[in-house]
Structures are given as C-alpha cells and as structure tokens.
Amino acid sequence: xxxxxxxxxxxxxxxxxxxxxxxxxxxxxxxxxxxxxxxxxxxxxxxxxxxxxxxxxxxxxxxxxxxxxxxxxxxxxxxxxxxxxxxxxxxxxxxxxxxxxxxxxxxxxxxxxxxxxxxxx
Amino acid sequence: xxxxxxxxxxxxxxxxxxxxxxxxxxxxxxxxxxxxxxxxxxxxxxxxxxxxxxxxxxxxxxxxxxxxxxxxxxxxxxxxxxxxxxxxxxxxxxxxxxxxxxxxxxxxxxxxxxxxxxxxxxxxxxxxxxxxxxxxxxxxxxxxxxxxxxxxxxxxxxxxxxxxxxxxxxxxxxxxxxxxxxxxxxxxxxxxxxxxxxxxxxxxxxxxxxxxxxxxxxxxxxxxxxxxxxxxxxxxxxxxxxxxxxxxxxxxxxxxxxxxxxxxxxxxxxxxxxxxxxxxxxxxxxxxxxxxxxxxxxxxxxxxxxxxxxxxxxxxxxxxxxx
Lengths: 121, 323
Fold this sequence. Notes:
Chain A is an all-alpha fold and 121 residues long.
C-alpha cells in the first residue's frame, strides 16, 4: 500500500472541517478532488511527481472502507479519528455514546489475538 | 540553581473536560469519581508551588507529520496556542494561550544537545491535548509558563524505552543545573495499556489490565531495571496498539530517578483505559507530604507504591486464567 499517501489523505482531510464534510457527503468525488488539489502539493508552488494511490486504495477511500485501510497498514490513530469525525455523532444519536467506536472494534474483531498489520513505512 | 519541586506522571484522557463540565444531567456516570480523583491529584502539584512547568507529551498528528516527524522536540517560544480544530470537534476542548519560558527552553535545548540528545526545535509549535489536558486537570488556571517537550510514541521506528529513560535522566540534570531561583515542576503524560483504532478499543476495561498492574508497580517503585527487562516495542504492542505512550511515563520516572518511590499514586478503571496519577517530590517537605496525604484521603489513593500483588488486580488474573 502507498501508506504515506493514504495517511496523507487521512491526515489532511481530518484537520480541515470543509474537507471532512465533503468526504462524508461524497467520498468518491472528494478523493478525486483531493488528488488534484492537495495530494501531490508540498506547498502552494512545489509538487512531488511520484505519489499516487493504487486503484484498491482509491476504492477503499471512496467507500469509507476503514477495515481495508486497517488491514493494509493505515495508521491506526488517523484511521480512527477521521472516521469518528464522519460517523460518531450520527451513531451516538441513534445508538448511544461510543456506538461507532464499538462497531469499528467489532468489525476488526477477526484481528484479536493476531499481530496487527504494521503501520511502519 | 533551580529547584525541581515535583514530578508528575499521568494519563491524559481527552474526555475529562467534557465529562466534568457538561450539565449535571448529561454527565456520564463515572464523571464524579473521576473529578474527585483529578482534583485531589491537582493538590499534589499546588503544594509544589511551581514557577515553571516542563511538560512532556506527544503530538497526535495535529501538527507534526510523517514527512518529517521528530523523535524528540522542544518548543522555544514566548507563547503557545493550544487546541486544534479536530480536538475541539472530538473532545470539546477549548482554546488556550499559554506563556512560554524562553530562557529555560533555550537552556534545556542547548544542554540536551550538549549531552548528545539530538533534539529538534520548533518556533511555531501549537500544543495538543497531550499537554493541554494536564493543564486542565492539574493547573486549570493555565497561569504558569511552560517548556513543552514532544516525543515520538506514534511513528515507527520509535526510540527505545531505554532512550526515553535516558532523556528523562538528562532533563533532571538540566533542571537541577538551571541557573535560576525558580521552582520547576515536570509534568508528563502518556498511557498505560491502550488500544486505538483496533479490535480491542473501547472495551469494558483497558486492553491489558495486568500490564497496567506491573506498570504502576514499576513506575511507583522506580524500578527501571524491571521496565527495561520487560518492556519492548513488541510487548507494548501486545498490550494494545497505542501502549507505546507508556514510554513517556518512563521518561517521567527517569526525571524522578531510579529506585525512587512515588509519594502519591492513584488510578481509576475508566472502561476502555486505566487512568493513572503519580507524583514524586524530589526534595520532600512536610507541606508537600501533608498535601499528598490529604489528597490521598480524598481520592482513596496511596502515599507510596502500589504493587502488582495488590488484591485489586486479582479480578483480572482470574479472568485471564479462565480465558
């Protein structure tokens, strides 16, 4: 996995409320827009030339697939906090406090007792 | 020379502010106990009468980032802003501006480099909940200048536990030699066993209560040998994928010194993690020890080490044996 680039997506979306809202409402379009407007930019002038998602990564991000991201080494803290931003309020209102976090743990339950995918790059 | 009057090592749960400032009918059931323990712990710092706070924490990907993440970093600024947008969003933590102590930052940075600890420095550091949470809990007036120190507990490869301890020992020597008449308190926060973003997160207890039992004994007895013999990156990962924050508690034990028993130890099982509050007084005064005793009475804490053989941990041994 292009761990750095995927983590960069999670990091830069999570720190900006406009990107968070966009990613929640239309993740597929947001991923494409992010690649054009943010992904390769080092600053407003300079770009890298080699960073890009694989098709699987783009699809996982476009479908909010945090289980796939965990399983392919996305950083656990970024993977948690961004999806909390997207879903915590809605889940808490419907099912009570920390309902999203609990569901996330359940969906990752098959990793209990195993070595987790490494977040090292 | 400056006097190090207290060393505090604690957890930094970002839910505390919201849990204890919400209207009474919206407070979670554990808020009252939690607040009682935190406010008692606060008195152990007040009794140290600090003029400056040296604060150890870790940026949680709020400002520091994978393209250039420092292993150890010190802030060198006249003031520091606190609380990023996504911490307000997630935890309801308000904005703060804290004064810096540029003189101690500069001295600390130069002396650390002189001792071969290659620290990065920041002149544009915004502090996150690893530092503002202990301000909220033990110095809510937010009226003292700080010297922030960040460590890498998130981005592998991480420095070794031994290196965290050595940094703590160096910080102690530097505070002791700081040419000033001021009183300095060192406050650092990290974690016991903790899981974030994995299958063991937000369970009924922390992911590894028996690690917590050992950790509290080792820290509160200053048993660095036991820590360095038993705690590795792999063993911490086995106790929860975010347990590496324990190394910041080890760093604080390094400041307190090897073999030095803590003067105040408390902990609280807070569903998905265990809160822990520990204080050492390097130059114990009767007033400080009295304050610790009063605080311990209020919070049902200990004025000395808590051992892993304490019956309080038996329930977890039983459940582990049954499993």
